[in-house]
Amino acid sequence: MDSLLIEKIKVKIKQIREKMSTFDAYFTKGLELYENKKYKLSIELFKIALSQSNSQDFANYNLALAYQQINNDDEALIYYEKFLKFYPKDQSALYNTALIYFNKEDYKNAAKYFLTCFEKEQNKKNVVALTKCYTKLEEIEKLQDLADYALNSKCKDECVFEIAKTIEEEYEISNPEYLEIALNIYSKLYEEDKNNFDVTLSLSKVFSKKGDWKSAIKYCIKALDINPKSYEANNQLGLTYYCSEDMDSCIYYYEKAFKLNSKTDYRIYSNLAYAYEQVGKTDAAINLFKDLIVKFPNCPIKDNIKEHTKMLIQQQKEIV
Fold this sequence. Notes:
Layout: H1 3-19, H2 23-35, H3 39-51, H4 59-69, H5 73-86, H6 91-103, H7 107-120, H8 124-137, H9 140-151, H10 156-171, H11 177-192, H12 197-209, H13 213-226, H14 231-243, H15 247-260, H16 267-278, H17 282-295, H18 302-319
């Protein structure tokens, strides 16, 4: 903070001090400044409020929140923990404290606070956060216990699928063992409700990651029986047939997916183009690659697609 700004803050605080003398007055002004996004000034007012003889402990929360807004997480932690001594079950403070620890990669402390959140309120946000902590800590037993608890409790409808989904996402980053845990959870959910589209499609995707194309196809077809017009399911089935080298079926489902959603997802352009290339429909592949580059200029694979398209065009010229 530059010296001129510091002096302005001091003058402003002095002016406010002259008009105020109680906790309520300082705290109210701090809230007003916070609402106006003047976080540094609000911090000073909250501190003054807490120094008053009639100060209230709940102001520690507002001070922590203001520090968090200016990315001073160390100070925010100090005041969140002060607040939690008096209000140990406050969901917002627990979650924010846990989130700071998570961002600092202190997953052990983050898990402690997220667990308290989850015990008090078993919702999607809390269960996903706790699952992420356990995956980062590679607490396999705790992940399984959490999933078993959710499966056998009143929170299962909202939470179990999110546990499996979060574990599956972490598999690609860290521990291959997570894929088996996710598969086990999805399988239990499927046995309970075989008409659950999201669970059925997720089973297909997990089997794809395992390279079990026969099972991936089986569950993707079941997902399409539930929702024939699903873009994701048609695209997924195209992928599984591509990987199992059934190109006719692959192109059939990729073309269906393209008709369902060619405006918002660049993947179907590249997927169908590569399939066309595999069966010798090079001109069709080139046209799709060109369309992808024009329609999705910010897609992450744009540069690779450009190089690949140039190569295909060059090969066409050499053939001629």
